[in-house]
Amino acid sequence: MIQLKTMLNCIDNSGASIVECVANLRMKRHAKIGDRIIVVVQKQRNFGEGAGAGGIGAAQATNKVRRGDIRHAIVVRTAKKLQRKDGHVVRFDDNACVLINKTGEPIGTRLTGIVGQELRDKQWSKILSLAPMHV
């Protein structure tokens, strides 16, 4: 259940580490796996040794988003239990999302971590193809 002011992990390599939900485009009370939300980037990801004092230009070149940017995102994991049609109950350890642009294409080119299988029902096949595993 993702609602207003919920903090989510960003699992792609777009440059965001933690984002905060500011709007739910589903127009219901909360968002579930596969729903589109609007987020604000709260914490930027630093990319290893290039993020040091000498290589600050290299780190900024790899970040596609910056702190304070408002972006669209797709929820891929929720900590709330979700019951599937076949009877399985799925619960993830954290809330996570993938940043997308206005046309629905993912901003990042790589995903870290698993995503929920409910993305297949909502036609987010591009995110499923980038993910290493879906449960």
Walk me through what this model shows:
This protein is an alpha+beta fold and 135 residues long. The chain has 3 helices and 7 strands; from the N terminus they run E-E-E-H-E-E-E-E-H-H. The chain has helices at 56-62, 118-121, 125-130, and strands at 7-10, 16-24, 36-44, 70-77, 82-83, 89-90, 96-100. A 5-stranded mixed β-barrel has the order 1-2-3-4-7. The model has no long low-confidence stretch (mean pLDDT 89).
Number of helices: 3
Largest beta sheet: what is the strand line-up? 1-2-3-4-7
Q: Termini, distance in Å?
A: 18 Å
From the alpha carbons, calculate the radius of gyration and give it in angstroms.
15 Å
SSE succession: EEEHEEEEHH
Mean pLDDT over the residues: 89
Largest sheet: 5 strands, mixed, barrel
Query: How many DSSP E strands?
Result: 7
Overall outline: globular
The residue ranges in which pLDDT falls below 50 over 5 or more consecutive positions are none
Structural class: alpha+beta
The helical percent reads 10-25%
- What fraction of residues sit in β-strands? 25-35%
Please name the defining characteristics of this protein.
alpha+beta; 3 helices; 13% helix; 135 residues; globular
Could you give a short description of this structure?
By secondary structure, the chain is an alpha+beta fold. 13% of the residues lie in helices and 29% in strands. Strands 1-2-3-4-7 form a 5-stranded mixed beta barrel. A two-stranded antiparallel ribbon has the order 5-6.
Write the layout of secondary structure elements.
Elements: E1 7-10, E2 16-24, E3 36-44, H1 56-62, E4 70-77, E5 82-83, E6 89-90, E7 96-100, H2 118-121, H3 125-130
Parallel strand pairs: 1-7
Antiparallel strand pairs: 1-2, 2-3, 3-4, 4-7, 5-6
